[in-house]
Structures are given as C-alpha cells and as structure tokens.
Specification:
Radius of gyration: 20 Å
Shape: globular
Largest sheet: 5 strands, parallel
Strand order of the largest sheet: 6-3-2-1-12
Order of helices and strands: HEHEHEEEHHEHEHHEHEEEHEHHHH
CATH architecture: Alpha-Beta Barrel
Number of helices: 14
Number of strands: 12
Distance between the termini: 59 Å
CATH superfamily: Glycoside hydrolase, family 3, N-terminal domain
Helix content: 40-55%
Strand content: 5-15%
Structural class: alpha/beta
Oligomer: single chain
Number of domains: 1
Length: about 375
C-alpha cells in the first residue's frame, strides 16, 4: 500500500469518535532514551502504554529522565514493567532493593505465616515505592501461578503449591503496592504452573478438565477478583475447555473470568511476540492477527514486547498499521469500557521523589519487615 493511501486509511479510521476512545497497545523501546521513531509510536492514537526492560535502565537518574520525557509526550500513557522480585526484576542497581523471590515468601509461610504476610506486604510496598519514585506507574505483579514443580518458566516465581497460601500472600503484595499508590496485576490466568513447556518458546497444553482447573489453579483469581486491578491470561491451551490459548479465548476471558468469577478490571494479553501467541487453531499467525484475536476474545490491552529491537521496529509499525487498517472494516471495534479500565490503572497520587522516599517512614518500615 502506498504511503499516501496509508495516510488516507488512517484518516478515515480516526474520523469516528469511538476510534479515539481506546488505546489498546503497550509497546517497548530499544534503548535508554527516546529516538524519533519511539516518539512517533508513543504519540500514535492506538498506543496506551509503554513497557520497560533491563535494556532501558542505566541509572535511576536516566530512568527518571526517560519516564519524564514519555509523560511530557503523553501524560495519559501507562508506563509499566515486569518487576516481581527474585529473578524477574528489571532494575537491580543504583539503589533499587533486591526483592526476594515469591517462593522465598512461601517458604517463610511454612515457619511463620503472619511474618510471611508482613514480608509480602513490605515487598509490594518497596517494589511500588521505588518504581514510582522513578516515574514507573505499574508493575505486572503478583504471580498467582501454583508451584506444581513442573514449570521452569514459573519455578520460584510462584509463592506456593497451595492456592490458599498463594492467594493470601499475593493479596498482601497487592496491598503493599497499593500503599505506594500502584495497582496490581495477577498472572497468568487460569494458571501456568501445571505445564512444563515455556510459552515464550512453545505452545504449552494443559489437558486437565475445567472442573479441576477451577478447583485448584484458578482459585486465587476467584478469591482475589475484587483485589486485583488487572489480570494477564496465560499463553496456554486447555483443550478440554477451548482449542485456543486462554489469551485468545472468549470462553476463558468473557464466560469464565468476567461472568463466572466476576472480574471487572483490565485484561492484558501476555506478550504477543511469544511463541505461545503466534499459533492459533493450529496455524501460524501474524502479529496483527494475534492482536485482533486477543481483542476479539476480550483483552483490553495488548503487549507487543521486544519488537522495537527487530528490523528497526518495522514489525511493530506493520502491526500498528494493520490494526489501523482493520478499523474501517469493523474487524475490531474500540471499546470505551476498555479505555476506562486502562485509565483506572494510572496512579491517582503524585509519587515521592527518590530523595523524599529515602526519608519516608513507611518505606523504611517496609524495608525492615522485608528483612
């Protein structure tokens, strides 16, 4: 399609008011500062968020400058990161506290349940306080997957095998995050811990029945339906429930998560670049097809990670263009309620600066209890 025709398609797509009412994409950037392509993509009307990685961090000063520039471009943009603790913690130096793995909190539970609850609250508070002091709005935590002992990708990211312990410790982490003004995201619905395959590299299949899953792995999501602001589904196929991965399944996201479990918060797709998201109904699919399938299933926000580093971001641009071209045909329809859920994840209070945080008694108490 010619450049002139591209612009015409975009102009037509954006004429309707509803087309501007939903910004479903969360994108990444390649480096430690914005370039011209980053600025262009972040100002695109379909962009609602930015996800950061370790490659985007050099120092606290640099990170704060980066997030400030992003907010100057788009004050409404949701800046997020995967910062759980343990081996999934993107920022680890220049003052950031090394957070414990979730499994270590579960191990504390076995010796002193109340001390573990206190430490989990402290972990959430420290996590969120430090991120917010550097301009980061949101972290994809806590993990609600059960530790069945089979999944290498989950492993020590899980609190425990017992869903009751997982739910209570995750609730404590979420409470600690909220103390610092940050919302939480439970993942990976309805549970990734039972399967051995890594959905980053493969398409995991969990052959259990719906009854078995709802009675075990999905229990923390049911119990925390009022506590979580967001949920991320797994790129796992549960063939006795649906032939599609949970993140592409209206059965899982609408019939079960929304209707049966009553969850009313935001639903994020997991990274659409993962291998588990690149196959649908047995066929390889493009990023645009994956995005459309996730939106159709009921996702409010779509994660497109690590695409800015490939071919100077051409795949990312192609995907954004594909979604724009799909608007006039009605292949997807922007949803006001989805945009409201995204906006609700933005912090409602001003963050402390790092200097202010270093003198904050709540933060210091949390550090002591994290111990």
């Amino acid at each position: 399609m010619s450049t002139a025709k591209n612009r015409k398609v975009q102009a037509e797509a954006l004429q309707g008011e509803d087309a501007l009412a939903h910004a479903p994409l969360m994108l990444d950037i390649a480096g430690i500062q914005l370039d011209a392509n980053d600025r262009r993509r972040l100002q695109h009307p379909l962009t609602g968020g930015l996800i950061l990685f370790s490659r985007n961090f050099q120092s606290r000063e640099q990170l704060t400058a980066l997030t400030s520039e992003v907010k100057a471009l788009r004050p409404d943009l949701l800046i997020a990161v995967d910062h759980e603790g343990g081996r999934v913690q993107r920022f680890r130096s220049d003052g950031f506290t090394h957070l414990p793995s979730m499994r270590s909190l579960g191990e504390r539970w076995m010796s002193d349940a109340m001390q573990a609850v206190s430490a989990a609250t402290a972990a959430g508070c420290v996590l969120a306080s430090e991120l917010r002091a550097c301009g980061v709005d949101f972290s994809f935590a806590p993990v609600l997957d059960l530790d069945h002992g089979a999944s290498s990708v989950i492993g020590d990211r899980s609190f425990h095998r017992d869903p009751r312990v997982v739910a209570l410790l995750a609730k404590s982490v979420a409470h600690g995050m909220l103390l610092a003004g940050m919302h939480s995201c439970g993942k990976h619905f309805p549970g990734h811990g039972f399967v051995k395959a890594d959905s980053h590299l493969d398409v995991p299949v969990d052959k259990r029945s719906l009854k078995a899953i709802l009675a075990d792995d999905a229990k923390p999501f049911e119990w925390l339906a009022l506590d979580l602001a967001a949920v991320m589904p797994a790129h796992v196929i549960y063939p006795k429930v649906d032939s599609r991965p949970a993140g592409f399944s209206a059965r899982w996201l609408q019939d079960i998560l929304r209707e049966r479990l009553g969850f009313a918060g935001a639903i994020f797709s997991d990274d659409l670049g993962m291998q588990g998201a690149r196959v649908l109904d047995g066929q390889a699919i493009s990023y645009t097809q994956a995005a459309l399938a996730a939106l159709d299933a009921g996702c409010d926000m779509l994660l497109l990670c690590n695409l800015s580093t490939l071919d100077q971001g051409r795949t990312l641009d192609d995907t954004m263009q594909g979604l724009m071209e799909a608007l006039p045909s009605g292949a997807w329809t922007p949803r006001l309620e989805s945009e409201a859920r995204r906006a609700a994840l933005l912090p409602q209070t001003a963050p402390l600066t790092w200097s202010e945080l270093m003198h904050d008694p709540t933060y210091h108490l949390a550090l002591q209890k994290l111990g």
